[in-house]
Amino acid sequence: QVQLVESGGGSVQAGGSLRLSCAASGPTNLREYMAWFRQAPGKEREGIATISPGGNDYYRDSVVGRFTIARDDNHVYLQMNNLKPEDTAMYYCAASPGNWRLGGPLDVTNFNSWGQGTQVTISS
């Protein structure tokens, strides 16, 4: 599996911005789908953005127009703008080789490599 390490989390006020980074190492290859998930206390982990090996991106409706996922070499980034208190969560980087039978690019069950997470806290 790919090893993933996130960075860039923190605390900002509503309306602010943060940029998360994820470094991938180990048996990586450019054919991995890379994604960002988040999990708030008491809630299920949810997919928010995924980028394909070819650069196609997919977003959760609630972050469209505010979040942007990008990748280069063995890194994936999440630029988050106009942050809201409801964006507060632990954010996780994830990787998958693709070829899913069920679900889609934001389905947590389709990803088998995970980082340790980075906390994002948005105050109102």
Provide key terms for this protein:
49% strand, mainly beta, 124 residues, 4-stranded antiparallel beta sheet, 0% helix
List the helices and strands and how they pair.
Layout: E1 3-7, E2 10-13, E3 18-25, E4 33-39, E5 46-51, E6 57-59, E7 67-72, E8 75-80, E9 89-96, E10 113-114, E11 118-123
Parallel strand pairs: 2-11
Antiparallel strand pairs: 1-3, 3-8, 4-5, 4-9, 5-6, 7-8, 9-10, 9-11
**Low-confidence segments:** none
Distance between the termini: 38 Å
**What is the share of helical residues?**
under 10%
Radius of gyration: 13 Å
Count of helical regions:
0
Structural class: mainly beta
In this structure, how is the largest beta sheet organized?
A: 7 strands, mixed
Walkthrough of the structure:
The protein has 124 residues and is an all-beta fold. The chain has strands at 3-7, 10-13, 18-25, 33-39, 46-51, 57-59, 67-72, 75-80, 89-96, 113-114, 118-123. Strands 2, 4, 5, 6, 9, 10 and 11 form a seven-stranded mixed β-sheet that branches. Strands 1-3-8-7 form a four-stranded antiparallel β-sheet, with no helix packed on it. The chain has no helices and eleven strands. The mean pLDDT is 94. The radius of gyration is 13 Å and the shape is globular.
Summarize the structure.
With 124 residues, this protein is an all-beta fold. It contains no helices and eleven strands.
